[in-house]
Amino acid sequence: MGTQVADGGLPWRYDADGNVVTASPAKQTQVFETAEGPKEFVLEEAIVADFALVRAHRGDRHGNLVFRRAARNFNPLAAMCGRTTIVEVEELVEPGEIDPDHVHLPGVFVHRVVPLTPEQAADKRIEKRTVRPASPTATSTEQEA
């Protein structure tokens, strides 16, 4: 509440001279009862995608999934916003092998499960760190930092 996103007027498009051509409209607000009393909240439309493509560490053929590390932050939400959710599973297990308390995304949100081969599961190009050598023109102080 009280931000430019909520109140509207956030620039969406500019003309060639840099003037605002289109600005965001004000968002709808509604008062909800909370433990601290009634509070006003900004309502936002849900993101809906035709397809959601995610990768899980473990999963069963029913679509119950377990994510690892940072994938746990966004992948469940990305999977829930898809009309059709397709999941690559690094380790496919039998139904019932995943403890229900450890399931990060239940199968109700998953439409297709694609098991990966061990070679495909090991190929995580986005997770590889690359470090380039220091340039010869850098000073010794820059190279130490």
Secondary structure topology:
Blueprint: H1 4-7, E1 11-14, E2 20-23, E3 29-34, E4 37-42, E5 49-60, E6 65-66, H2 71-80, E7 82-93, E8 112-115, H3 118-122, H4 140-144
Parallel strand pairs: 5-7, 7-8
Antiparallel strand pairs: 1-2, 3-4, 5-6
Describe what is shown at a glance.
With 145 residues, this protein is an alpha/beta fold. It is built from 4 helices and 8 strands.
Q: Report the C-alpha radius of gyration, rounded.
A: 23 Å
| Total DSSP helices | 4
Q: Going across the major beta sheet, what is the strand order?
A: 6-5-7-8
Shape: extended
Distance from N terminus to C terminus (CA atoms, Å) equals 42 Å
Assign a percent range to the helix content. Answer: 10-25%
- Strand count: 8
- Biggest sheet statistics: 4 strands, mixed
Tell me the strand percentage band.
25-35%
Order of helices and strands: HEEEEEEHEEHH
The average pLDDT is: 90
- Secondary-structure class: alpha/beta
Instruction: Name the poorly predicted regions.
Output: none
Quaternary structure state of the chains depicted = single chain
Can you describe this structure?
- The protein is of the alpha/beta class and 145 residues long.
- The chain has helices at residues 4-7, 71-80, 118-122, 140-144, and strands spanning 11-14, 20-23, 29-34, 37-42, 49-60, 65-66, 82-93, 112-115.
- It is extended and about 55 Å long.
